[in-house]
Amino acid sequence: MALTLAEKILQAHIVDSAEKFTKGQPITRGSDIAIRIDQTLTQDATGTMAYLQFETIGIPRVKTEVSVSYIDHNTLQTDFRNMDDHRYLQSIAAKYGIYFSRPGNGICHQVHLERFGVPGKTLLGSDSHTPTGGGIGMIAIGAGGLDVAVAMGGGAFHLAMPKVFGVKLTGKLQKGVGAKDIILEVLRKESVKGGVGAVYEYFGPGVETLTVPQRATITNMGAELGATCSIFPSDEATKAFLTAMGRADAWSELKADKGAVYDKIVEINLDELGSMAACPHSPDAVQTIASLAGKKVTQVAIGSCTNSSLDDLAAVAAIVKGKHVAPGVEAGIAPGSRTTLMMAEKAGILGELIRAGFRILESACGPCIGMGFAPNSEGVTLRTFNRNFKGRSGTADASVYLVSPETAAAAAVTGVITEPKTLQFEKLIGEGKTMLSGEAAVLNKDQILNFAKDDGMLIAPLSMEEAAKVEIVRGPNIKPCPATAEAAAKLTLPVLLKAGDNVSTDDIMPAGAKVLPLRSNIPEISKFTFERLDTTFYERASALNPKGCFVVGGENYGQGSSREHAALAPMYLGVRAVIVKSFARIHKANLVNYGIIPVVFANPADYDKINQGDTLEITNIEQALKTGGNFELKCGANTFEGTNTLDQRSRNILLAGGLAAYTRNGGQ
Question: Active-site residue among 215, 532, 563, 649?
């Protein structure tokens, strides 16, 4: 029977399944599967804790084909803490056979695409935008650091067999319209929770017109759909990209079988697609640029793992050439990798950006995670990033619009939101071509290859003999991961917080320059838990500990980043269960990993029967976890059910007191 590309790669990597299946036949959607992980990546905001956990497993060397530790988040070194984390991570990489990407080498997802990504392989990363790898035909999934630590130790990654949604692309992008506009259109159609439990697979004649950097933009921001991942076929465009990167031998052709059946199909005609923007404060609050045109802008930021490739920089340079950033606008641009930066300089792109008045920022995540370049108070900032949650930029009252590099460039030189197609400019590259294909006049193939092979900022793993001599470097801010609480038969605790819909991991545990240096110190970082929703939460939770408390929420609880600190810090403060209308995938898994019970209201209307401060009782925890039955909840005179949406392995993890304890006890 014909299979989708996602099904084919997943089937090739299954090591265990809850149901018997025949290779080449569809697997029941929602059934529990365990897949082999070929590659892992971590970044420094989540990596320190992931490797602290990996150390406890007691394995002398990672068992994956490739594991890479990237430094791209915590690069603002205002004191010793971030550099201490970097030194710890470098020593861990040397000790356990891991590649180490030094600060300044670039953003993990772009560097991994350039240096390590292989079509048909599986990649698990401790960052929610790991699905970027789907741009070259990988099954690339974001997860919590503890799941990645287990994968590095040779353990399988467990998930429910996702649905596969097809996105059929026809036509080709028109002048001034970018790949970002494609994913914004998908978000407009599907919403931030439309992809939960699904893979988005792109197909159709329009795919052939897109370069790998354009495809990576789409798969990267597919994370905002709540999807497991997104994927493109591996074709001639993929071959051209890998060849330019000096890795032609990594290419293989991969595509869905003819006649493959998708669970649903979303159709987009690129000929008709216009410029779009995600308006404050959600990635799916999408409107056309035409409807927003004329709105005054005070800041433009171009970069992030979504839009910082050489193609993106070339698109900006073409629009701003001969122009200057408008008075009253600050504009910054961050190349996604050192390779991109060097190529942009050689191609003359960097000079065009500097002449136009752009500030050149570090090749790192930077403003996307609130690490510098914050907008002014009540400012309007256009950003080529993937998230615009309130306060994420570092300025609580700023209005953040997510746009393409083309739209950002147009606003930078006009001072207002502007449709790029209304400006006079000539593309530096032709339709369907890429700066990395060797077909652009500004760089020849040999020049591109020389830049691509420059791995001076990438430290390869040591031999086993050399690694055995390495001593781990631990600064004073690096603390062990706190132990989880033991499973309880029942719990009677206060509801310490009642939250609404679409609570993000930024709301639970913010990023930014003030908080990120504390990633390896849970007692300290816990002081910021739920700070954006309730500034008194930490004090009230601390007063109750070790007794504990509950949190209640609405739809899509835990959307956004994969940061496990959004589960770790609540666990440390005594949160024992979270009861909501629905969960985002990664956060739900992180809660389980740290022994917090995720409960879903059987009847969403029961949410209204609970108030902050009420005492809530879950009466049958042990029974529900052992049998898979629903949870029984009581609040005052009200009795209601909480749906048990947990698979057998997740229930066993909770019974063991978290994934670390489960793994130590021999759990798989």
Answer: 563
Query: What confidence category does residue 24 fall into, taking pLDDT thresholds of 50, 70 and 90?
Result: confident
Helices and strands counted in the chain (H then E): 23, 27
Q: Rounded distance, CA 200 to CA 183, Å?
A: 11
- Cα angle for residues 377, 381, 387 (degrees, 5° grid): 110
Residue 166 or residue 665, greater confidence: 166
- Listed in sequence order, the residues at least 6 apart from 189 whose beta carbon sits closer than 8 Å to its beta carbon are 266
pLDDT one-digit tens code per residue, 585-600 = 999 999 999 999 999 9
Active site residue 271: no
Q: Which of 44, 127, 147, 311 is catalytic?
A: 127
pLDDT band for position 430 (cuts 50, 70, 90): very low
Q: Spell out the alpha helix ranges (H) of 137-221.
A: 145-152, 179-190, 212-221
- Active-site annotation holder among 13, 73, 158, 565: 73
> Does the annotation mark 397 as catalytic?
no
**Active site annotation includes 263:** no
> What is the three-class DSSP state of 282?
coil
| pLDDT for the residue numbered 428 | 52
Which one from 13, 36, 67, 72 is the annotated catalytic residue?
72
In sequence order, which residues have a C-beta less than 8 Å from that of residue 604 and are 6 or more positions away? 581
Instruction: Identify the pLDDT of residue 513.
Output: 80
Consecutive H or E run containing 410: helix 405-414
Confirm whether 17 is a catalytic residue.
Answer: no
| β-sheet bridge partners, residue 43 | 70
Confidence check: pLDDT of 240 > 80? yes
Nearest to 26 by CA among 196, 265, 262: 262
| Distance of alpha carbon 202 from alpha carbon 181, whole angstroms | 15
Active site annotation includes 127:
yes
1 contacts 21 by C-beta, under 8 angstroms: no
Choice among 242-251, 328-337, 449-458, 608-617 with the minimum mean pLDDT: 449-458
What are the residues whose beta carbons fall under 8 Å from the beta carbon of 562, sequence distance 6 or more?
A: 46, 125, 126, 127, 128, 130, 142, 143, 144, 505, 586, 590
Residues 187 and 287 sit within 8 Å (Cβ to Cβ): no
3-state secondary structure at position 55: helix
Instruction: Give the helix/strand (H/E) hosting 493.
Output: strand 491-498
Q: Angle at which helices 349-356 and 338-346 pack, to 10 degrees? A: 90
- 86, 387, 519, 532: the catalytic one is 387
pTM: 0.92
pLDDT tens column, 302-356: 999 999 999 999 999 999 999 999 999 999 999 999 999 998 998 889 999 999 9
**The three-state (H, E, C) secondary structure of 93-121, written as one string:** HHHHCCEEECCCCECHHHHHHHHCCCCCC
Catalytic-labelled residue, pool 561, 562, 582, 650: 561
What 3-state class would DSSP assign to 333?
Answer: strand
**Torsion, CA 150, CA 155, CA 160, CA 166, rounded to 10:** 90
- The residues with which 383 forms a beta bridge, in sequence order, are 301, 402
DSSP-assigned beta bridge partners for residue 41: 68, 125
In angstroms, the CA 429 to CA 517 distance is 40
Q: Is 582 a catalytic residue?
A: no
DSSP string for residues in 336-353: SBHHHHHHHHHTTHHHHH
CA 446, distance to chain mean position in Å, is: 33
Q: What is the pLDDT of residue 440?
A: 42
